[in-house]
């Protein structure tokens, strides 16, 4: 398996920036990792806040828990007011992840091409 394919698989399947780290592009790897981690933090913290609201609401009603009422409340929370930051964080994460994959392939291909040209010059 050549370098571009390994870099793409690392960036696609592990985490954005992993392919750059494999290619020894540490600054790019750091940027992709930090931005993606920040977007994940925003997503997860928003989901945890909503989950805590749902759990607190269920606990306030005590033993009279109705599955239909919980379903309606969860739907209301998911369609709530804080959808903007979650959708922005999701878009940032997707864009950075896809850009990381494409850039890792580009860098890996350039490195492989330059290595092949050096080998041809020596022969």
Secondary structure layout plus pairing:
Layout: H1 3-13, H2 18-22, H3 26-60, H4 67-78, H5 83-122
Helix pairs in contact: 1-5, 3-4, 3-5
Give the termini distance in whole angstroms.
24 Å
Task: Estimate what percentage of residues fall within beta strands.
Answer: under 5%
Helix-strand pattern: HHHHH
Share of helix among residues?
over 70%
How many domain regions?
1
Structural class: mainly alpha
Radius of gyration of CA atoms, rounded to a whole number? 22 Å
Explain what this protein looks like in three dimensions.
There is one protein chain. This protein is mostly helical and 123 residues long. The chain has one domain. It is 84% helix and 0% strand. The chain contains 5 helices and no strands. It has helices spanning 3-13, 18-22, 26-60, 67-78, 83-122. The two termini are 24 Å apart.
Name a few traits of the molecule.
single chain; 123 residues; mainly alpha
Summarize, please:
The protein is mainly alpha-helical and 123 residues long. It is built from 5 helices and no strands.
């Amino acid at each position: 398996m050549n370098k571009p394919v390994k870099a793409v698989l690392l960036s696609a399947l592990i985490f954005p920036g992993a392919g750059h780290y494999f290619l020894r592009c540490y600054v790019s790897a750091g940027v992709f990792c930090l931005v993606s981690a920040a977007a994940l933090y925003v997503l997860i913290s928003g989901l945890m806040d909503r989950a805590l609201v749902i759990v607190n609401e269920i606990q306030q009603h005590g033993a009279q828990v109705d599955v239909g009422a919980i379903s309606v409340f969860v739907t209301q929370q998911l369609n709530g007011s804080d959808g903007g930051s979650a959708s922005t964080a999701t878009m940032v994460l997707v864009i950075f992840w896809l850009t990381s994959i494409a850039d890792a392939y580009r860098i890996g291909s350039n490195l492989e091409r330059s290595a092949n040209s050096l080998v041809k010059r020596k022969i």
